[in-house]
Amino acid sequence: MNGLFGINGLFGFLVAVVLVVVLAIGFGMLAASIQSENSTNYYIIKDSAHIEAQSVDNKDHFEDAK
Predict the structure, then answer these.
(1) What are the residues facing 64 on neighbouring strands?
(2) Per-residue pLDDT tens for 10-63?
(3) Euclidean distance between CA atoms 37 and 30, whole angstroms
(4) Which of 3, 13, 52, 64 is 20 to 30 A (C-alpha) from 22?
């Protein structure tokens, strides 16, 4: 417990807490900006009658409208 309540222990704890909070805020803002950019990204669906429930070829039926 000598180093826990000393200057180095408290300073290290404060740095770790600030780092975690800054990272959480930064990643949250990044996620919100990515979501808002993609919320207006519309797709054109081509040949919707032939889209299957589980098929890797479904990607060929969607096209970016932008």
Answers:
(1) 43
(2) 888 899 999 999 999 999 999 999 999 888 888 888 887 877 888 888 778 777
(3) 11
(4) 3
Cβ neighbours around 35 below 10 Å, total: 9
pLDDT, position 5: 60
Q: Reduced to 3 states, what is the DSSP secondary structure of residue 52?
A: coil
- Report whether 34 contacts 24 (CB < 8 A): no
The span from the CA of 58 to the CA of 46, in Å, is 10
Structure token digits, residue 5 = 């309540």
User: Which structure tokens are listed for 22?
Assistant: 């800054």
- The neighbouring-strand residues paired with 62 are 45
